TrEMBL record, chain A:
Residues 6-88 form the Carrier domain. It holds the Pfam family PP-binding. This is Acyl carrier protein. The lineage of its organism: Bacteria, Pseudomonadati, Pseudomonadota, Gammaproteobacteria, Oceanospirillales. It comes from Halomonas lysinitropha. It comes from the Bacteria. InterPro entries: ACP-like_sf (IPR036736), PP-bd_ACP (IPR009081).
TrEMBL record, chain B:
Pfam families: AMP-binding, AMP-binding_C, ApeI-like. This is 4-chlorobenzoate--CoA ligase. Keywords: Ligase. The lineage of its organism: Bacteria, Pseudomonadati, Pseudomonadota, Gammaproteobacteria, Oceanospirillales. Residues 100-278 form the AMP-dependent synthetase/ligase domain. GO terms for molecular function: 4-chlorobenzoate-CoA ligase activity. Residues 458-550 form the ApeI dehydratase-like domain. PANTHER family: ENZYME, PUTATIVE (JCVI)-RELATED (PTHR45398:SF1), PTHR45398. Residues 350-430 form the AMP-binding enzyme C-terminal domain. SUPFAM superfamilies: Acetyl-CoA synthetase-like, Thioesterase/thiol ester dehydrase-isomerase. It comes from Halomonas lysinitropha. Its EC number is 6.2.1.33.
Length: 90, 566
């Protein structure tokens, strides 16, 4: 894993914690492969909408209408990172 | 195509020719075949009440019709959590599967469809009562038809296509997103349309089929519409509905601006069906729906309508209202129920569930009025259970969340947790708004420690219980894997909190006997001992690990305590 990748992981963790006001979650609590929703970090359907907005604001990423694909992107931190790496426009 | 009431089986009318829409849409013409499949599945099974939870609007609608035409009643659980389904399973004949896996057999004997009687039960819905226990509400066909007729009069659907972002397991989504389009014979879609990107795609699809869209939405969705999506003027819906909770005025304006369409809010409840409507960009007060009669008793709203179980009796709504020109203004709930993402949540239920945990002595759940709508909770614990570090706090929250998730939907679970040994209280013995604000002040002030209580043992000494918030702004700039509170910040906290505890203070003159003994890390719970001295204050930061920092601050007191010109 390169330096840049680590930076992006940390940036995404900050983004998740700040956007969703997860006051009891520290950076080290987000396991890159654990599910973000349901079990794991415990995010819900409202968080999914918030996260979609934040990704657009921060990275210019526009999610598409394929709902299944959207859900896959949000499945874990690493999946989210892969999305940002391929689709960021900033 | 014109409006046909449910009791006259609109799905049995010859379907008009409509321009094809993609497969995510339910077209009226596609229904009879699916209804037939569900009727075959039901043939030979017991009559009575059947549990129906189905995300796909086409399958939902077909299964619903098949239940009706076979003389059965549809029981619609509010969610599909295993506990909910298990609890209801005992009260019904069975649960409908995701799909009717029955091949068509030539000559199979299916009973002919029954005519629907207006006075028979169509659906049983669930909502949360004031105690938090789910209550079931049966709706007859005449109630549903009366309300659908009111919708048809106010908002005819001719030539439209209906896109729903909300669940049809609840009364609003059922009436507006499924039954009205069914009665009007127009295409509809739902489920994944709850995502804004999918909504944009569906608007485009409706436009390509030369249909005007009608969007059935909620404050949870309309307050989170991204502005970058192609919300084109040419695809403007003729109407956007919102219900479930009042929409903030700013979100009403923003949604009208983005979607180029009027946003019409419907006020009502599972018990009453629709009561009133408003377009907030025109008026903040609510006008009654056709057929709804209003009366006021103090701040309480009374109503009569054909949508009620007993139309000729006055129903008292648990919301507080103020009469207005043609209707009323909503002032808030009279009980301890709040709406989160449109779901009715009982604060008392959350508190009771938490208090059943052995280590919890008392819990107070509070609506913080934050824009995210999330709840906070203040929990008194036996002292052995008090978390003293980040990991312990996180584990405790995880366990309490897991316990709540058996009873609540995820969005209803509190997001902000404050653990105390006893609930803080004012001189009247109440955990009042001021104390609640103080307990949660660090949410908006990322420079403050988290305040969890205060104990005075005389006019000149006090001990505050505090926590280092994980999101403290001062932690930034330190190593990611070893964040700590800078010493200067600890001194600043001591000075500021002494001012709050002891009142007026003098000018800073200097520091004495300052000792930093151990780092103070995020998540640590600590006490701050403050003593007022003749020439200033003394302070000590102490946690379970030991003493972190102590010292004295010299202050020069002004003459004339409390003098306003100083």
């Amino acid at each position: 894993m390169s330096e840049t990748h680590d930076d992006l992981s940390i940036e995404l963790k900050h983004l998740i914690i700040e956007t969703l006001e997860l006051e009891d979650v520290a950076l080290g609590d987000i396991d890159p492969d654990a599910p973000l929703f349901g079990e794991g970090l415990g995010l819900d359907s409202i968080d999914a909408l918030e996260l979609g907005l934040a990704l657009q604001k921060r990275f210019g990423i526009k999610l598409d209408a394929e709902a299944e694909e959207t859900r896959r992107h949000f499945s874990s931190l690493n999946a989210l990172k892969a999305l940002v790496e391929t689709r960021r426009v900033d | 195509m014109t409006f046909t009431p449910l009791s006259q089986a609109p799905w049995r009318r010859p379907a008009p020719h409509v321009r094809a829409l993609p497969s995510d849409w339910v077209s009226p013409a596609s229904l009879p075949a699916r209804v037939g499949a569900w009727r075959r599945w039901l043939a030979g099974r017991p009559g009575g009440q059947w549990l129906l939870y189905q995300r796909n609007p086409g399958e939902f609608c077909s299964a619903l019709i098949a239940l009706w035409e076979s003389g059965r009643v549809a029981v619609l659980p509010a969610d599909d959590r295993p506990e909910t389904l298990a609890r209801l399973a005992n009260e019904v004949e069975g649960t409908l599967p995701d799909a009717p896996d029955v091949p068509e057999v030539v000559g199979q004997d299916i009973p002919p469809p029954l005519a629907l009687s207006p006075s028979s039960t169509a659906v049983v819905l669930y909502t949360s009562g004031s105690t938090g226990d789910p209550i079931s509400l049966a709706k007859r066909f005449d109630q549903l038809d009366a309300e659908l007729a009111a919708h048809a009069k106010l908002w005819p659907l001719t030539g439209t296509a209906v896109i729903s972002q909300v669940s049809h397991q609840h009364i609003y989504g059922l009436l507006t997103g499924i039954l009205h389009p069914l009665c009007a014979g127009v295409p509809f879609c739902g489920d994944t349309s709850r995502y804004p990107e999918v909504l944009a795609a569906r608007l485009e699809e409706a436009g390509s089929a030369e249909r005007k869209s009608v969007v059935v939405s909620s404050p949870a969705h309309l307050s989170r519409l991204p502005d970058h999506l192609p919300w084109a003027q040419r695809l403007a819906p003729c109407r956007v509905f919102s219900s479930g909770a009042p929409l903030a005025a700013v979100h009403a304006r923003q949604a009208e601006h983005l979607l180029h369409a009027p946003v019409v809010e419907i006020y009502g409840s599972t018990e009453t069906g629709g009561i009133a409507q408003r377009r907030q960009t025109r008026s903040s007060t609510w006008d009654p729906l056709p057929g709804v009669r209003l009366s006021f008793k103090g701040e309480r709203l009374l109503l009569r309508s054909a949508f009620l179980d007993t139309p000729d009796a006055w129903w008292q709504q648990p919301d507080r209202v103020a009469p207005a020109a043609n209707g009323f203004a909503l002032l808030g709930r009279a009980d301890r129920l709040v709406k989160i993402a449109g779901k009715r949540v009982s604060l008392a239920h959350i508190e009771r569930t938490l208090a059943e945990t052995p280590e919890v002595t008392e819990a107070r759940c509070v609506d913080l009025g934050r824009s995210d709508g999330r709840l906070g909770v203040v929990i008194a614990l036996i002292s052995e259970a008090i978390p003293h570090c980040h990991e312990a706090r996180r584990d405790l929250i995880k366990r309490l969340r897991a316990r709540l998730s058996k009873h609540l939907e995820p969005v209803a679970i509190p997001r902000y947790w404050r653990f105390v040994e006893v609930l803080p209280c004012n001189p009247q013995g109440k955990l009042d708004q001021g104390l609640i604000r103080r307990l949660f002040a660090d949410l908006d002030d990322t420079r403050a420690p988290r305040w969890l209580g205060e104990l005075s043992s005389g006019a000149d000494t006090c001990t505050l219980t505090l926590e280092v918030p994980e999101r403290l702004a001062y932690l930034e700039g330190h190593f990611e894997d070893y964040p700590l509170v800078p010493g200067v910040v600890m001194v600043q906290w001591a000075i500021e909190l002494a001012r709050e505890s002891f009142g007026q203070q003098g000018d800073f003159q200097g520091l004495e006997r300052l000792k930093f003994q151990r780092p103070l890390q995020p998540g640590i719970r600590f006490s701050l001992d403050l003593t007022r001295r003749e020439d200033g204050i003394a302070f000590a930061f102490i946690s379970r690990e030991g003493r972190h920092c102590a010292g004295r601050v010299r202050l020069r007191y002004q003459d004339g305590v409390g003098a306003s010109h100083e």
